[in-house]
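User: Sequence in, structure out. Go.
Assistant: Echoing your sequence, followed by the structure tokens.
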Amino acid sequence: MLSTARTENYNLHQRILFDAGLFIGALLKNDPRYNEARALVEQARLGNLPVCTTASILGEVYGALTWEKAEPPHTSMEAAEAVRLLVEPPSAIQIIEEGMEAILCALNLAAQHKLTARRIHDARHAGAALSSGIRKIYTYDIKDWQPFEQNGLEIVGPDSIMTYLRRKVNKEI
């Protein structure tokens, strides 16, 4: 059960998947995305923004926090606590399943888009979203997600990325 009345009004299909960069940006104070990402993650935690993510995305966040070049660097204990606080109640951020349907979808996406090596992780996140009925994505890594737009996923935020995409389209016209 979700922890706030605001998010109880949203079904899973209306939620937005937050990619790892949103959480990483929100947790690393020296990250250039910090101000924007921190505000969005807090709104999600409070239930004012209907957000979901996956366990594997949270694993990426933990990895980024414990990376030797993270600013500021986090110990294993600090990183585990930071990631736990993102999603543990009273947080309204929901974790979507990554079961059989999601992995089969991911493998199909990887084959369709000719993804290799580490790009399978992008397909795994996209497969989890698609198999859960999620269509909206917030990401700072637009190149990772754009191939999946033809499969029904749509990058809808954050604002800095939407501004960048609008400027890019205007230059191409």
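User: And one key feature?
Assistant: The radius of gyration is 16 Å.
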